[in-house]
Amino acid sequence: MGTMRGDASRAVKGYCGFCAVHCPVVTTVDAGARLLSVEPDRSHPHGGAICAKGRAAPEFHDHRDRVNFPMRRTRPKTSPDPGWERCSWDEALDLIAGKLLEVRASSGAHAVAFNKGTTGGTALTDTERWLQRLINHFGTPNIGGTTHLCQWPRDTAGAHYTFGTPALPMPDVARSSCIVVWGSNPNGNFLSLATDIAAAKARGARLLVVDPRRVGLANKADVWLQVRPGTDGALALGLIHLLIRAGGYDSEFVREWTNAPFLVRDDTGMLLTGADLDGAPGVGRRHVAAVEGSSELVVYDAERGVYAMDARLALSGARTVRLAEGFEVTCRPVFQRLAAVAADYEPATVARITGAAADRIVAATRLLAEHRPVSHYFHNGLVQHTNATQASRAIEILYALLGDFDRPGGNVPGPAPKVEDVSARSALGQAMELRRLGRAERPIGPPATPGTVTAYDLYRAILDGEPYPVRALVSFGANALLANGDTLQGRRALERLEFFAQIELVETPTSRFADVLLPAASWMECSALKVGNRYPIEAMAHIQLREAVVPPLYERRSDVAIIFD
Ligand code: SF4
User: Fold this and answer.
1) pLDDT tens-digit readout, 140-165
2) Is 85 a residue whose pLDDT tops 90?
3) Tell me, what's the pLDDT at 538?
4) Closest residue by Cα to residue 415 from 82, 175, 165, 119
5) 270 pLDDT exceeds 90?
6) For residue 22, how far is its CA from the centre of ligand 1 (angstroms)?
7) Residue 43 forms part of a structural domain
């Protein structure tokens, strides 16, 4: 809601839309609708600080690089200058709709792909669910994104496949006794979290920071581990090793809530199943654990989430098990196998791999073991490496050993507002979902969860027609050429497209290959509804309306308006 000031300027409360943190802000506008400033909204329950990018928003509003009018190209895509020619919105939208319908009619909806920017650094959350609705109703399974570049190893491979949550739950910093910040500098990009961590530190919480650079919170850390980029997985294994050796893990949590007691067959390396024991494979997913101090086995029913009987389960010790097929195999608990893998990572070895001092690694383990509950936050500093998936999994296994997941002071899945899902997922159908590019090669990868196509699969479909040709692309704010590797292949793919429409704030190397370039309004020029906050936990169930601060300049339109048009 805007409030007038004595000097005829207006102060409009809302939230910054430049990244997914959505800091509460007050934007001041003068009588001529000129943006004067963006400041933190300190009257908001979760307002307090904003970063330089948010403060610079007024400069961006009428920057000379902004795209202000719909344009179509007049020169070949191989020309360094697209020869942009202004056209009307009606002409541009008719051109796009006509081409997409033509491709769908002749080659199928999957021959059209969409693309989107990152929610992490843009206002895409304003748009995403409506964009998904458009795509699902259009009928293509192919929506590209940036998931494969950063978020997937952390949120899907790390959190989802370890804890079952859609993403890594946020740290409950206010109640933590020890906070781990790994591969992230919240002082630069997540000020509300950085402020809360500093406050927790001031009240006595311990702080462990893993970062190649001594920046931000690393200066306040009780232990700062200066690792070489890309060596985080080795560090996590080293910490797991020391934690297990010192008995610093939560053995009750590990027994009750993890698969650590499940037996693994030595001969196949696979989990021993109920079907191995009784030869009844159709009974459902059943795993097997051993009872501590006895030769008895107990079956776990994965569908119901219960063991067949109450017993203290063994975390170590080999068992010889007779299978239904008549032969015997040796089996050991998952926990024992984990301990064996991690045992290769003594502090001296980890120090050699990571560059962090061995005594600091030991001190870090002591912090984790002695100051509970522990919460953690890790981000893009460690997920943009080729080994990011396994590093993320190792970190989450380390965290599972601490037993603080979903405990006050740990990482706690927050409440979410209940709202109607407008993405129309059922409109697409499962058969089409299975045709998503890359799905066959990576059945548990980004094409399956959360359901996005990698740039490389898209390029292959455009250039080689594998597994089928993609002929047209509509992109909301994605700069695929700069975000992904192999720029030359990307460039060839964009040149090859029969039709490419880009919706953008500014011209980019990617938008230069568009047939039609549409001017997007920024977050200050359009209203939006924020459903749930990312942080803190107390704000996760909140819904906030952001009104447009000013009407769109020139002929810019919001992404949502373009989708509905
Ligand atoms: S962290 Fe910066 S860019 Fe992100 S919402 Fe806050 S002020 Fe905006």
Assistant:
1) 999 998 888 888 999 999 999 999 99
2) yes
3) 82
4) 165
5) yes
6) 6
7) yes
Q: Is this prediction's ipTM beyond 0.85?
A: yes
Q: Which of 15, 16, 22, 189 to mutate to test the pocket of ligand 1 (most atoms within 8 A of CB)?
A: 16
214 plus 327 within the same structural domain: no
Residues 21 and 100 in one domain: no
Q: How confident is the model at residue 281 (pLDDT cuts 50, 70, 90)?
A: confident
For residue 562, being part of any structural domain is answered with no
Burial class (CB in 10 A: 0-12, 13-18, 19+), 447: buried
Handedness of CA 143, 145, 149, 152 (dihedral sign): negative
- CATH number of the structural domain spanning residue 496: 3.40.50.740
Query: How many domains, the chain?
Result: 4
Residue range 41-50: average pLDDT? 87
**503 and 529 share one domain:** no
Give the residue, by CA position, lying nearest to ligand 1 atom 5.
Answer: 22
In a domain, 8, yes or no: yes
Ligand 1 pocket residue status of 123, Cβ below 6 Å:
no
CB 89 within 8 A of CB 111: no
| 323 — pLDDT class (breaks 50, 70, 90) | very high
- What CATH number does the domain containing 348 carry? 3.40.228.10
513 and 436 both lie in a single domain: yes
Torsion angle of the four alpha carbons 410, 413, 417, 423, in this order, in degrees rounded to the nearest 10 = 140
Mean pLDDT, residues 198-213: 97
CB 75 within 8 A of CB 67: no
Last residue of a domain, one of 314, 334, 354: 334
Partners of 328 in beta bridges: 322
CA gyration radius, the chain: 26
The pLDDT of residue 54 is above 90: yes
Q: Check residue 6 and give its pLDDT.
A: 59
Residue 23 Cβ < 6 Å to ligand 1: yes
Q: Residue 379 has what pLDDT? A: 86
Q: Report the pLDDT value the prediction gives residue 123, as an integer from 0 to 100.
A: 78
CATH of residue 22's domain is: 3.30.200.210
Written as one letter, the residue type at 170 is M
- What are the tokens at 529? 């509804």
Statement: residue 5 has pLDDT above 70: no
Do residues 94 and 176 both lie within one domain?
Answer: no
Which residue segment(s) compose the domain that 18 sits in?
A: 1-61+521-556
Query: For residue 511, what pLDDT is reported?
Result: 96
- Contact 530 CB / ligand 1 (< 6 Å): no
> 103 near 472, Cβ under 8 Å?
yes
Based on the domain organization, do 23 and 109 belong to the same domain?
no
Are 143 and 157 contained in the same domain? no
Task: List all residues 6 or more positions away from 69 whose beta carbon is below 8 Å from its beta carbon.
Answer: 86, 519, 554, 555
**Residues paired with residue 113 on neighbouring β-strands, in sequence order:** 473
Tokens of 38: 């963006």
Query: Is residue 54 a part of any domain in this protein?
Result: yes
pLDDT in tens, 363-410: 999 999 999 999 999 988 888 889 999 999 999 999 999 999 999 999
DSSP 3-state assignment of 420? coil
